[in-house]
Amino acid sequence: MGGLETERVVVGWAARDPSGILSPYTYTLRNTGPEDVLLKVLSCGICHTDIHQVKNELGMSRYPMVPGHEVVGEVVEVGSEVTNFRVGDVVGVGVIVGCCRNCNPCKSDVEQYCNKKIWSYNDVYTDGKTTQGGFAQSMIVDQKFVVKIPDGMSAEQAAPLLCAGLTVYSPLSHFGLNKSGLRGGILGLGGVGHMGVKIAKAMGHHVTVISSSDKKRAEAMEHLGADEYLVSSDATRMQEFADTLDYIIDTVPAVHALEPYLSLLKLDGRLILMGVINAPLQFLTPLVMLGAIKNIGVKPIFLVFFFFFVGRKSITGSFIGSMKETEEMLEFCKEKGITSMIEVVKMDYVNKALERLEKNDVRYRFVVDVAGSKLEP
Ligand code: NAP
């Protein structure tokens, strides 16, 4: 594979400032090593995290930034020590492309929690070069962070599994929630949420979607297979569902009250936070100790007059998943016939797609057909 002298010039679409508007950008890929895989990008999903990043909502963005971390590509070249992949393989790359390999998380195969992990874009690689993501012609990635896409899965269908699918699969698996018969809630029916419904259903769960509006009811029930649909502002229905759920996967990417959702959980239920929110969330502590509050007409300050349901609830969080879980999740999706529900667009539509995603106007993931797009200016 290419040595130090090789300089690969590629075109990607980059944001230049917090306006988050992407436009063609020419740059060189990092030098390659014996464990690296060079891939030609075929498809790349658009995650809400891409909006947080290109708009510098987390205050850690560096520009120019080529986003995209749900990447499916075709292997074009492999380094001399690459054992897992061959030229022509269709492979995936997700949110991280490096880790220290020595810390406890790395040694325990949960390298996504390594403090020295390297993000697939908006980060600095070990050679000091900026990492750039999948809205580009090519990427060079260490084989440890590359997975094989199962045969028969199309590139555009597979792309959202690499972040959205994994983000749901990992906590369900880690917290022992991957057994049938559970009752789960999916809060926010977007890219991550729709994969949540599909994966939870395939695990044999009774799934309740909790949405901010009634607009997605028919799709949730008829196309995604949800069992129940709640509109979060419908206090009466929310009250009816108090104390019914074993877990809720909360994908809301904005500040929101946690109390209404904590109330829905059973004893020992878990609220699993996924949304990246750059402001503090608040909740009343009795809700995790004692349980749901049935309002009998007094103000929350007089909690003693409230009836309590069961409690001992947990609020937790989870970050994507490991490479091991990525492989497991892809196998699970293949075995269960799970794919994503997507809208495929060309790169010249990417800014409109980001705008629509921000306005909650996508069913349910945009995927850019990168190989079929003109990337050059
Ligand atoms: P998305 O496609 O925009 O979906 C988010 C959903 O939340 C929307 O479809 C909407 O569902 C609801 N929602 C949106 N804005 C809201 C608001 N202001 N108030 C209440 N509900 C709102 O986003 P996504 O790609 O699924 O990502 C969701 C969040 O998870 C983002 O913050 C993203 O950065 C984060 N994320 C985290 C991880 C991780 O590893 N933890 C991985 C991937 C993504 P309804 O219409 O049903 O209300």
Automatic annotation (TrEMBL):
Keywords, in A-Z order: Membrane, Metal-binding, Oxidoreductase, Transmembrane, Transmembrane helix, Zinc
One GO MF term attached to the UniProt entry: oxidoreductase activity, acting on the CH-OH group of donors, NAD or NADP as acceptor
Pfam family, one: ADH_zinc_N
Gene3D superfamilies per UniProt: Medium-chain alcohol dehydrogenases, catalytic domain, NAD(P)-binding Rossmann-like Domain
Cofactors (names): Zn(2+)
Domain Enoyl reductase (ER) per the UniProt entry, residue ranges: 20-305
GO biological process per UniProt: lignin biosynthetic process
Residues spanning the membrane: 296-315
Family label: Belongs to the zinc-containing alcohol dehydrogenase family.
Designated name of the protein: Enoyl reductase (ER) domain-containing protein
Organism, scientific name: Hevea brasiliensis (Para rubber tree)
